[in-house]
Amino acid sequence: MNPFSPETTGETNSGTNSGTAPPPDGAPDRPGAVGPRPMGAVNRLGLWTLYRKELQRFLKVVSQSLLAPIVTTLLFLSVFSVAMGDIVREIGGVPFAEFLAPGLVMMAIVQSSFQNTAGSLLISKIQGNIVDVLMSPLSPGELAAAYAAAGATRGLAVGAVTLGAMAIFVPVQVQAPLTILYFAVMASVMLALLGLIGGIWSDKFEQMAAVTNFVVTPAAFLSGTFYSIERLPPPLNDFAQVNPFFFMIDGFRSGFIGRADGDTLAGGIVLLVLNLALWLVCLQLFRTGYRLKS
């Protein structure tokens, strides 16, 4: 018998050992070789990479993304406290400054969350590098989740540092921490998703500015940020009762001062439903490539 025949060496005609199964198609045939990275139902590495990229984007401009909202909020606090401090000393038995502070913090949260996602999508479209994101092995849900999570993270970070700076000048008493956390998260996620929709829809900075100036800012200012909606006449009071921004601010404020102008439970449910609806809209926009693919 030939000692070098396939029968004695255990080799097949293809040069592989008969007792070892061949590697699957596309897999590396030796240790250390480059091959496809196995992915499960969720591309966790890609999701984390896009999320971290979005975080690093706004952390590189901390003076604009974190410090500027603090200065703006403190200016609002000082101006309204000086202008109305002698006229309106209390609202619902709560000192005016303590009533005003949570509303200003929430306004900083929603504006920062919206700006993060809207600005990121719009700049990527204008620079033409949005195609790199769309070609990545990320599903529409993973793309939306990474952008929305980064926007919400920025909003919550701005809210935390703004609240800390405001606590130096205004006594801040926490009555219901879980209520505060819930409405802060719901609000930041909602505005991050709205920013995604706005960024996808807009092709120019003028269009995004129109969304900010005619939708986000008026809704925030007419939601009881600086006053109790009980002071509003019937038409405006009715509008405030269906304004999602009112639910955000009223629920968030109730966690600090222990009272609310509306039903916080109903407001929390409304925000949850709206977030689910906005999430579905973002998924559909990424699936179809609306205004993303040329």
Please explain how this structure is put together:
- The protein has 294 residues and is mostly helical.
- The protein has one domain (67-287).
- The chain contains eleven helices and two strands, in the order αααββαααααααα.
- It has helices spanning 6-9, 44-59, 62-84, 96-127, 130-134, 140-166, 177-201, 205-221, 234-241, 244-257, 264-288; strands at 90-91, 94-95.
- A two-stranded antiparallel ribbon has the order 1-2.
- A hairpin with a 2-residue loop joins strand 1 and strand 2.
- Helix 3 (62-84) runs antiparallel to helix 4, helix 4 crosses helix 10 and helix 7 (177-201) runs parallel beside helix 11.
- The longest helix is centred in the middle third of the chain and has 32 residues, at 96-127.
- Mean pLDDT is 84; it is low at 1-20.
Explain briefly what this protein structure is.
The chain is mostly helical and 294 residues long. Helices cover 67% and strands 1% of the residues. It contains eleven helices and two strands.
Provide a count of the helices: 11
Rg from alpha-carbon coordinates: 26 Å
Tell me the count of domains.
Answer: 1
Specify the helix fraction band.
Answer: 55-70%
Give the number of DSSP strands: 2
**What would you call the shape?**
elongated
Between the first and last Cα atoms, what is the distance in angstroms? 68 Å
Q: What is the element string, with H for helices and E for strands?
A: HHHEEHHHHHHHH
Q: Spans of 5+ residues with little confidence (pLDDT < 50)?
A: 1-20
Largest sheet: 2 strands, antiparallel
Give the strand content.
under 5%
